[in-house]
């Protein structure tokens, strides 16, 4: 049957045409389904329910589901869905990948952009569950993969998508055919060669000294053409995955910098537009490239010096701060709703963006703000003030002592609230939106590891901290799941260009 899309904010799908029956799942505004029957009291749809097997695995199984709006809602069943070709809903999900970033943008007409992907299998698992049924001969089309910068916690999880193709469990396999791969042009070199550490200035490619600035001129376009010796192990694994996908379908590679808006002509339509706001290229005479950034002053910082747009306090050459600060920054605008994606933008680079906002060259103001660098203390208060978000999303997670960075920082969280446009802004943190179940005393299944580890008190994750957003450019829905299947944290706003968003009721049936 032709697909339809849900036309209310949230709808419970029940096992029987009775509001007291078992809850199967909850659909959200813009979700596509097959509608099988419409009566005055319910809508029957084709859905999937997840069944737990004896081995503990959870698998999807086809099922019929019923949506039964209460009479008190005043909503008629005939108005719950509209034909998919009439869909106006933009869907943006910020996926819980623990310590890292990974987002999925889906346009009303079904175009898919993946923004980063963490450094583990979580992003690949989420996508395999969302886009079921792919195969080598019928891969899932992906219109664009945008890697904001070359840190492993932003792109190594994309390599896991390729690795999933040979997973023993067919449900965890995902075959994709990306049409475009966009990035900032910086490729990390190995940290040491022949036992000798590589100097900071040589970690990201050829550089040229111009006055006081060091400029990286060795920027890359087609990642498949970069010699293996010039890539660290994470980039080499990424190159291998890209080579396989490129054979499946030729990939368009492109290095993005400020003003490269035409790169998104494939996506932009009507009042939907992506604008590239960074990184900025530095031009001095015949030298053109990305400026090598310095290290910030040592913290902790509890004053108000971050409100300055002066960058003179950042000294030396820091490869890590450069690859972060030169992240691809873009704004996604749909009607009166604006999303600001920032990668791992840091204080120094953010000050440059803030100064250009203040001068009127760009506009950073956005309703939804993907917070830079997982809530790091290396942020610009001036930049946050320019963005003035209504809802902020921090993508962070505690995995191990090795990956502990005290994210998000208390100073950053306070600044987000202070610089919002509304009195009571929303601040989501993916790891805080996740829910865990107490399992009790447990043991490892591996005999040798169990002997060394011994019994331990275990918890299992029963809900991931995915923050989901929906908008048609006039209304905005933001929600996430909880440990209870029937409980969501959901907020809604009405939007009008040039005006502060107004809170609205969430329509749930």
Summarize the structure.
It contains nine helices and 33 strands. It is α+β, with helices and mostly antiparallel strands.
Overview of the molecule:
- The chain is an alpha+beta fold and 509 residues long.
- It has two domains: 3-85, SH3 type barrels; 90-438 and 460-504, Metallo-beta-lactamase, Chain A.
- Strands 19-14-12-10-9-8-30-31-32-33 form a ten-stranded mixed beta sheet. Strands 20-23-24-25-26-27 form a six-stranded mixed beta sheet.
- A hairpin with a 5-residue loop joins strand 5 (43-52) and strand 6 (58-67).
- Helix 1 (122-130) packs across helix 2 and helix 5 (347-359) crosses helix 6 (381-387).
- The mean pLDDT is 94.
Task: Give the topology, please.
Elements: E1 3-6, E2 10-14, E3 23-28, E4 32-38, E5 43-52, E6 58-67, E7 81-83, E8 90-94, E9 102-106, E10 112-116, H1 122-130, E11 140-142, E12 144-146, H2 152-163, E13 176-178, E14 180-183, E15 192-193, E16 196-197, E17 207-210, E18 213-216, H3 233-248, E19 252-255, E20 272-278, E21 282-284, E22 287-291, H4 319-325, E23 329-334, E24 337-341, H5 347-359, E25 368-370, H6 381-387, E26 391-394, H7 410-418, E27 426-429, H8 430-433, E28 435-442, H9 447-453, E29 456-463, E30 467-471, E31 475-480, E32 489-494, E33 502-504
Parallel strand pairs: 10-12, 11-13, 12-14, 14-19, 24-25, 25-26, 26-27
Antiparallel strand pairs: 1-4, 1-7, 2-3, 4-5, 5-6, 8-9, 8-30, 9-10, 15-16, 17-18, 18-22, 20-23, 21-22, 23-24, 28-29, 30-31, 31-32, 32-33
Helix pairs in contact: 1-2, 2-3, 5-6
């Amino acid at each position: 049957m032709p697909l339809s899309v849900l036309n209310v904010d949230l709808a419970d799908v029940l096992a029987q045409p009775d509001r007291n029956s078992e809850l199967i799942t909850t659909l959200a505004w813009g979700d596509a389904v097959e509608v099988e029957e419409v009566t005055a009291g319910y809508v029957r749809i084709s859905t999937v329910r997840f069944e737990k097997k004896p081995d503990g695995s959870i698998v999807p199984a086809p099922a019929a589901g019923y949506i039964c709006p209460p009479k008190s809602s005043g909503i008629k069943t005939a108005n719950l869905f509209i034909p998919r070709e009439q869909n106006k809903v933009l869907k943006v999900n910020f996926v819980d990948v623990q310590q890292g970033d990974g987002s999925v943008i889906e346009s009303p007409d079904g175009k898919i952009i993946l923004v980063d992907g963490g450094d583990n299998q979580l992003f690949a698992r989420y996508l395999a569950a969302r886009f079921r049924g792919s195969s080598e001969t019928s891969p899932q089309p992906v219109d664009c993969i945008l890697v904001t910068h070359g840190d492993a916690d932003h792109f190594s999880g994309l390599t896991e998508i390729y690795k999933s193709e040979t997973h023993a469990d067919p449900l965890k396999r995902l075959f994709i055919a990306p049409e475009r791969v966009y990035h900032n042009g910086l490729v990390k070199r190995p940290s040491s060669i022949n036992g000798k550490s590589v100097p900071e200035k040589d970690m990201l490619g050829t550089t040229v000294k111009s006055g006081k600035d060091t400029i990286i001129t060795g920027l890359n376009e087609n990642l498949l053409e970069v010699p293996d010796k010039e890539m660290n192990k994470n980039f080499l694994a990424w190159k291998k995955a890209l080579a396989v996908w490129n054979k499946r379908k030729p990939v368009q590679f492109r290095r993005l910098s400020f003003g490269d808006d035409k790169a998104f002509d494939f996506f932009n339509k009507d009042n939907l537009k992506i604008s590239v706001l960074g990184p900025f290229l530095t031009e001095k005479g015949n030298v053109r490239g990305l400026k090598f950034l310095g290290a910030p002053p040592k913290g902790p910082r509890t004053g108000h010096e971050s409100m300055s747009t002066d960058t003179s306090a950042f000294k030396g050459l820091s490869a890590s701060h450069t690859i972060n600060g030169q992240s691809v920054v873009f704004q996604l605008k749909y009607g009166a709703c604006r999303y600001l994606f920032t990668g791992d933008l840091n204080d120094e680079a953010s000050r440059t963006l803030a100064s250009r906002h203040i001068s009127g060259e760009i506009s950073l103001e956005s309703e939804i703000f993907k917070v830079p660098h997982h809530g790091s203390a290396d942020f610009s208060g001036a930049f946050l003030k320019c963005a003035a978000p209504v809802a902020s999303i921090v993508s962070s997670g505690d995995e191990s002592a090795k990956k502990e960075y005290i994210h998000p920082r208390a100073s950053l969280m306070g600044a987000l609230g202070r610089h919002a446009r509304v009195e009571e802004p929303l601040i989501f943190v993916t790891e805080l939106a996740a829910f865990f179940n107490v399992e009790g005393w447990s043991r490892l299944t591996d005999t040798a590891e169990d002997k060394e580890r011994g019994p331990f008190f275990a918890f299992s994750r029963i809900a991931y901290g995915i923050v989901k957003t929906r908008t048609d450019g006039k209304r905005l829905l933001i929600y996430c799941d909880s440990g209870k299947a029937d409980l969501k944290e959901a907020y809604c706003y009405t939007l009008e260009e040039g005006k502060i968003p107004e809170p609205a009721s969430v329509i749930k049936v």
